Amino acid sequence: MDFGLTGEQEQLADAERAWLDRNDPIARLRQSVDTAPTSVDPAAVAHAAESGLLALLTTDVGGTYVDLAVCSEAHGYAASSLPLADLTIGAWLLERAGRPEAAGAAEGELLVGVARAADQVSCPVPMAADMDVFAVVRRTADGEFVALGRDPKLVTMTTLDLTRSWARLDLDASVLDWKALPTGTLQHVRDALAVHRAFDALGGAARLLEMTVTYAKQREQFGAPIGSFQAVKHHCADMAVGVEAGRTALWAAAVALDEAPAEHRSRVASAAVAYAKSAASRVASTALQVHGGIGFTWEHDLHLFLRRIKVDEAVDGTVAEHRAALVPV
Known about the structure:
The chain has 329 residues and is an alpha+beta fold. 54% of the residues lie in helices and 13% in strands. It starts with 6 loop residues before the first helix and ends with a helix.
């Protein structure tokens, strides 16, 4: 497949990264990480709404998953607490279900988390404590359904991730009014969340690659920068291959989310997510190894990205689960 970002998509990525540079999420996190869980930055919500990012997938805007992908990677690169992809997919889901709340979600007046039902609880939801409502989706023998959950009981999760909070919804404790969805919506939501979670991990891996290369040029040992040593060069090269190959695979998956039939889309998504999550995890481990002792310190930002990548790897389908999905039964 011959694919490249359009000029508009490159400008979108540059603009989003520039805004995140000016409003550094890690600097904000460092102010409270020792005393309180992180929260969604109101300025980030306002920016996403004003930029039209929350409405990106709605029919009025007509954006694509590739458009959203470049923003997802930028937010992973910056370790942003704003679950941009989840909020955008939530607005799309409410519009698809014909819910009147879709307009508020697209304009940033209503933060909508996406919760996939898993028995009596939901799958993990990022920044659930900051969401106004939840689009809860589930499949039964009668079809696919969505309900709007307001003030549900949250089961707070303790994870490695310090850049985001995570929770499950207790569906047994919620009173939900289920509405039918078009067939295939749930699988599309599952594929989209998985792909964008992997893009988030990829963004973190790209940041760690840059940090590691910079450090290898500066850190000296035996009178020479450690980046001049062959072993370190190989480590950095392996990291670069992992990031670039992972990005290529995920771009193909983002295109499939926009254009491919359901069965092909799901296979492409699982193949890309399995590779990219595994590659991002290897990049994080290698970055820690090259940084040596300083990489293990609380003050260094490396551990924030490593923690985030490890949690991304575990949610919305593990590497093993996505690989299993590719094997015919």
